[in-house]
Amino acid sequence: MKNIYTLLILLCVSASAFGQVQKGDRFFNKGDYAGAAKYYEVALRKNNSKEILGKVIDAYYLDQDYRNASIYLNQLVGQRFNDADRTYDNEFNFKMFHVLNATVSSDKVVDYLDLYYKNRGEDFDKVAALDLIKELRKRNPKFDATKSNISSEADDFGPVRVGDSVFFTSDRLNDDVLRTLFAKRFKTTQRPFLDIYGVRVNDKNELAGEAVRLEQGVNSPLHDGNLCFNTAGDEMYLSRSAYENGDSGKIFDEEGTNRVHLYKSVRIDGIWREAERLSFVNENYSYMHPTLTRDGKRLYFASDMEGGLGGFDIYYVTVQLDGTYSTPVNLGPTINTIHREQFPFVSNTGDLYFATDGRLGLGLLDIFVAPLTVKGFTEPINLGAPINSRYDDFSLSYYSDNNGLYATNRNGTDDDIYSFVQTGEIITREFKTQFEVRDADTDELISDAAIQILGYQGKEVYADRKEDAAPFQVPLTVDDYTFIASGDNHEEGRMDIQIRGIQTSPYVIKVKRIFTDSELALMKEKNLSKDLKEKDPSRFELLTDVNAPQVVEKEGKLYMDVAPIYFDFDLYVVREDSRAVLDRLAAKLVKYERIKIKVSSHTDSRGPAAYNMPLSEKRAKSTFDYLVSKGIDASRIQYQGYGDTEPVINCPVGKCTEDDHQLNRRSEFEITGY
pTM for the whole thing? Predict the structure, then answer.
């Protein structure tokens, strides 16, 4: 019986907790996160489950109450809940990092980001992350930022300056008493719905008049803002809670949520006409934070539409000449992450500024810039302090080359508008790119390297000859290039490279040697030209083969440099001591099967010509027969006797020495084909 009572008590507690969760869910789905959190907390006291604990965390996190969020996050990651399964969603590690980064100063906050990426199976360098955060916290000397007195005690953000006026979004109380006292308020903030305001300012972005809420054509009964203008100033794109005039009013998606959509208003005769929803908008998704390129051809925005990388991604559509729009295009992983990318702005130079919580930064939303290059946007750069802080920093826009506005909630309470001046270049347009040319065999740097770098359509952007064997740098903009290198004794090497940002390692071409050391020595000895290897590689191969018998060149003809083939006087049989010489010749002919030779046999001048001629022919034939006996195809060998008609030493009859006769009594091996 006692167990039954215990079970009944547990069921009652569980039912009571479930009822509180249902109430909290209703507030949560309407965007009243603070109200939802109170019901979730009641439910959590009755049922300390990790599911309800997660709901409390999400409510406080979305309400930007990070101190309360951190309390319950600590409870979750500390596993202080009743579930038997002690694991929890990895996304809470990501939120823990952001919450702690905004509320405490400790290097340990990065531990949660490290854990988050490790659980995802991704690499994360915690030491490098800490170094980057410390660097970002230093005040960037290239920016000066000050709070503008446009800001009020309400939320003010999305500033866009046109001429001497600033347009922005705010939930401030206005002078319309009826609206202030009796108009419907947004449940999340219990303040008026967001509207678009305009105000005249001076050169320092200080108020020069009263902020005025724009007319009904722009503002609706629900939320309105962020906005952008075309260059002429007669077209306005804006974010708005999905709304249409008439009895229905709000537009809901399939789940009953009132989404944010993009609208366009046109100014005619000084009056902003009723804003119309853009044609590519799908009712089931949100589209917000429009920005138009200077030429008006592209409209960028943030959306959570299906097919993106994460929560909100940045997209663009092409604005056609007839005013229609292309299908939205996702900017991809160069810009977008699995988390949140919003508040895009495109500068006059085409660079993309945006806010994200998906990249390592100082706090929650940080502002980044992705430089535009001929290859599209490149790796985003965190602007660091003073632009970014430990809280949300977002909706940055420039109104001149070096002046702009942005919003931040760094005071921990509401969104304020800041004015900034850029005092230095923040985007590196050229990157010092390091190159090396190395020997393919020894891996050593080579000297006297001829360098060429080709850019778009093969246009030469750099050429030089590097005498020293050392790395070298070339400043290059983001683009695709071809790196070409060669050396005095090295073949040409090519490498296609992509410059996309700061380089972490050199581009290395390893080039093959044209000549070996032994080849160079032989070339010098034989006075061979360096272009012979390319023009006649077979001839070069024969002339640089150091194995005996070597090939030599005489008066343009090639010969086997064979040691003398001796015959006894008045005989034509190959002597034993000459057979070893012919054996080496036969081996060479086996190695080079394409070689054809002519054996020429000569006698000395002793004896009559009628005797010497047939003797030389017999000696030539004897040499031929010996080579054939060694397996050399007979068709590769010609032979001929010349008698004493072509002496090497043309000495007078009876005056030749024995050495002269020996030189004249010879066999020659001319290469007739190779």
Answer: 0.72
